[in-house]
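Bench notes, afternoon.
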Amino acid sequence: MKLQSLLFPQTGICTEEKMYFRRQGTIDFTWDKDYTTMFRNSMIAFDTYFNGCSAEKWFKYTKVKKISITLHVKGMFRITLMRKEKMLDGITTKFLHEETFGNEGVEGVYSFPFESESNSGMFCFQLLCLSEVGTLFDGRYDGEVAPEDIRKVKIALDICTFKREVFVTKNVRELYDCFLSKPDSGMSDNLEIFISDNAKTLNQDDILLCDKIHIFLNKNTGGAGGFTRGMIEIMKCREEHNITHVLVMDDDVIINPDSIYRTFVILSLLKDEYKDAFVGGAMLRLDKQFIQTENGARWNKGYLISHKSGLNLNDVDACLYNEFEEKTEFNAWWYCAFPSHIISESNLPLPIFIRGDDVEYGLRNLKNLILMNGICVWHEPFENKYSSSMYYYIFRNRLIDNSIHNLKYKRKMFIKDLKEQVKREIVYYRYKNAELLMDGVNDFYNGIDWLMAQDGEGLHKSVMGRGYKLQDINELSVPFSYPAYEQACRMPEPKRRTRAWRKFTANGIMLPCKKIAANEMPVVAPTFTARPVNFYRVHRALNYDYCSRKAFVTEKSIKETLRLLYKLWKIDLKSRWKYRKTVRSYYNRQNELMDIKFWNKYLGI
């Protein structure tokens, strides 16, 4: 059975060559070809993110008995089979087999088994051209599996979207062209696509390419409401369409369809003890496609730990590091597959709009998470998506998640975290963000009945209206200067004595503002990576969002500072008598939030 295909860089998906292969000598490859031309003594290696084989995981989680590499070539070559593993002192390479094969000018298909005393790390190979000219057309890793060990799997892809027409249309078209329109793809009868359109803006003529694609117009109840709507619709036709698994995926990602095929194969070959396992996809950056943002995560009571963040997947060492498994508590819903039987009328996600719904559902249901090189999506980095509204949900949803799972997030710990974040926003003069942080906490204290009674769409509109709005820089009172922005990003931290003085004076809030001469640059600070030093004794600052090229202005106000500190003091006081009571209420009544009757009313269906 084919486990995975050899992949090559492709425009519109990913063009980072070293994530696919490494070449030496004269090799002709361009993105518009579906084959590679090699010349004598050139070599191409496949110890890479997409084209290495995660042997250790295939053998651990599935019923694969043996793995081989099959190549379609023209010419004479020498293949070297290897097993690579990351060790404390570097990379260990075990050479397993070497063989010359093929004939000058003759096209053929050849297969080579990996024989190894250990399956740790990655199986991979390199190919040396012995002909004057040779061609590698394609290849695949095959797994030896008994027919009776292959499970019947059908995946329902659950996408929630809000005004992401370009991404959704492109991804659906890719999946249609690769799978749904091709009876010999192995997936044409094993994939259905369910889309919850929260904005009701998708052009259905561009999306409804066949009867396996379904669109549902939905209220804008955030990711939680959109994904849940998809789950409800999947439940309705689960038996009719023999759906065995659900794959939740974000609407603003780029995906290589082979990730879905690899997920399908893993699910089809799972050992009995892992039949309920989740399969997760890593998040890679959309702007720097070789950088990994997260490969599985721990919630850690809200002190999120993103595993293997920042790895450069062009490097063999990083790919081998990915092979190590770490304790995971959830996989974010940019790409996460799980058995459809987990979804039931009493086991739906929480109605918390955004941020934390995937965490909670993972904490509730995940036992084993399979993560494998080559299964991923490219997603815009979170620091490129600034929104004040997120501040409302930060603590509100963290408190709900921790309450429901009885994660001992003590009141003193929570108040310490809240004070740190509120005071940081005050130092940046971002008073609306500080207010939203505390509004979210107060709404948590309003309790579970308040949450269930909310119109999620209306509440989010209200939250959006209370935050900062990114505007065209030409419309703002502080002029934008790129050199000033660069200076703010690179400004060194002051010496220890100066930092102590800044802390003593609340970052200069208690001091008069510095006067700015007419020829001095304006104060420009980055939205995400701002530091207190950027705002020290500043009267007014332009907060610049690099991705959108927009900004908003914040201005020092002693009155607002005192008002917000008083509000923070009141929350601290309220917490002393209400924190435990509210936590206990969410824990005892959590089932009411997960029930189909509640969700039907909440979504208006």
